[in-house]
């Protein structure tokens, strides 16, 4: 295990009906609240009215930034920064999925910065402060509710970039599983694939002697596998929705990856795809990840054998390590397909024409990943396998 430091400041308020705590959570930060949300799901579900009632009850002055896009755009973040500055906002309140939360984070760190917030995404500037941020999460997927990361798309340059900062952690996040009952099947699936992918990025590692981290990872993977089909069959399955929600948070709040060299190549490749084609993040991962696995498994076959045996129950007897490892990868692909996730870029009408450009962009800061360091041609090969 590697040496590490760990701190996660986000207060989690988990459980059915916890939106009723919103007023008391917001109150200490001041009166001016910027409410950030997406394209209308919170209005259709009635959550918007609940949030407004809570804020009214504490006498908050509310300003709104609606219509944050899935794969949130820099132009929308700019609008939010202007609003927040114009109204001396005390707290940014994100109500939605990862996209809404990520946009709110970029607004929070962008307000006190005199340059363009995009500088943080292209590593041109370091984040030194941020406005307080709170969230009400409505979709189990990204873990953004309990981490300091944000992923923003600059549509003009077709670049999707992430930043991470201790100043971008939510101060609090409300996780009410009932708020996820209305998530449609496609986004339930995309979220499940995203959660599993976050675990993969931290589990397929060359670091030795990390049994606790590995078992955390295997536990989260099995929890998602056991619960996503229950939620698909019955969208109001209380236990399944609760377990998916907590699995999503645990997969990317930093705990399972401490002391471990992490990879993140597949996320890097996916971000290049969604930057150009605007496909859902989880769908891109469902296409890319099994191909990444096939491309890299020989770097550390024992970890892939462990994955196959412990997560998928593959019987290794009578099989070579390679056969066992490949059986685990096949089970992954088959599971993604069974729950309705995409397997090829062609399913989104994406052809070979921009693969080279994506591969070049993916390695702009150097090779991707650590399990196997991927150069441009490696990324291109994985993209070609994904066609
Ligand atoms: O926009 P609205 O109307 O709210 O609808 C959303 C959106 O269309 C809908 N939705 C959300 N909650 C719902 C609901 N519909 C009905 N009922 C509900 N309760 O779902 C759609 C997708 O929402 P989105 O927020 O885009 O999904 P997700 O949470 O998967 O976020 C994806 C974004 O997060 C980034 C991705 O790259 C992508 O931009 N990521 C952020 C990470 C982070 N901050 O740590 C890590 C991830 O790896 C990821 O890269
Ligand atoms: Zn992800």
UniProtKB/TrEMBL annotation:
CDD domains registered for this protein in UniProt: BDH
Residue span, Alcohol dehydrogenase iron-type/glycerol dehydrogenase GldA domain: 9-177
UniProt cross-references to Pfam families, sorted A to Z: ADH_Fe_C, Fe-ADH
PANTHER family in UniProt: ALCOHOL DEHYDROGENASE YQHD
Lineage: Bacteria, Bacillati, Bacillota, Bacilli, Bacillales
Domain called Fe-containing alcohol dehydrogenase-like C-terminal: residue spans: 188-385
InterPro entries: ADH_Fe/GldA, ADH_Fe_C, ADH_Fe_CS, BDH-like
Keyword vocabulary terms for this entry: Oxidoreductase
Gene3D superfamilies associated with the record: 3.40.50.1970, Dehydroquinate synthase-like - alpha domain
Name the UniProt record assigns to this protein: Iron-containing alcohol dehydrogenase
């Amino acid at each position: 295990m590697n040496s590490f430091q760990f701190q996660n400041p986000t207060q989690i308020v988990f459980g059915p009906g916890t939106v009723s705590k919103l007023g008391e959570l917001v109150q200490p930060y001041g009166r001016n609240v910027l409410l950030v949300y997406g394209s209308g799901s919170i209005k259709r579900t009635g959550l918007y009215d609940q949030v407004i009632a809570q804020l009214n009850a504490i006498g908050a002055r509310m300003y709104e930034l609606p219509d944050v896009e899935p794969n949130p755009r820099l132009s929308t973040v700019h609008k939010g920064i202007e609003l927040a500055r114009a109204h001396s906002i005390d707290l940014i309140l994100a109500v939605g999925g990862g996209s809404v939360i990520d946009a709110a984070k970029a607004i929070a760190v962008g307000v006190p910065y005199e340059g363009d917030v995009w500088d943080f995404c292209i590593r041109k500037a370091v984040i030194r402060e941020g406005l307080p941020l709170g969230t009400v999460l409505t979709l189990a997927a990204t873990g953004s509710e309990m981490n300091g990361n944000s992923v923003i798309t600059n549509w003009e340059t077709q670049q999707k970039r992430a930043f991470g900062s201790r100043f971008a952690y939510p101060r609090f996040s409300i996780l009410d599983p009932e708020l996820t009952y209305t998530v449609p099947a496609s986004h339930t699936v995309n979220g499940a694939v995203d959660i599993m992918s976050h675990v993969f990025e931290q589990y397929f590692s060359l670091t030795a002697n990390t049994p606790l981290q590995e078992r955390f990872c295997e536990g989260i993977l099995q929890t998602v596998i056991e619960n996503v089909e229950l939620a698909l069959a019955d969208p109001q399955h209380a236990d399944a929705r609760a377990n998916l929600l907590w699995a999503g948070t645990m997969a990317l709040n930093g705990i399972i990856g401490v002391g471990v060299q992490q990879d993140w190549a597949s996320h890097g490749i996916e971000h290049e795809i969604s930057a150009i084609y605007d496909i859902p993040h989880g769908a891109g991962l469902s296409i890319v990840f099994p191909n990444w696995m096939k491309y890299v498994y020989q770097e550390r076959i024992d970890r892939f054998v462990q994955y196959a045996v412990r997560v998928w129950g593959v019987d290794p007897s009578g099989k070579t390590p390679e056969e066992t490892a490949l059986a685990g990868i096949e089970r992954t692909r088959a599971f993604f397909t069974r729950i309705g996730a995409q397997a090829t870029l062609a399913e989104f009408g994406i052809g070979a024409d921009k693969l080279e450009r994506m591969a070049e962009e993916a390695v702009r800061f150097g090779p991707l990943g650590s399990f196997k360091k991927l150069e441009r041609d490696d990324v291109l090969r994985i993209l070609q396998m994904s066609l």
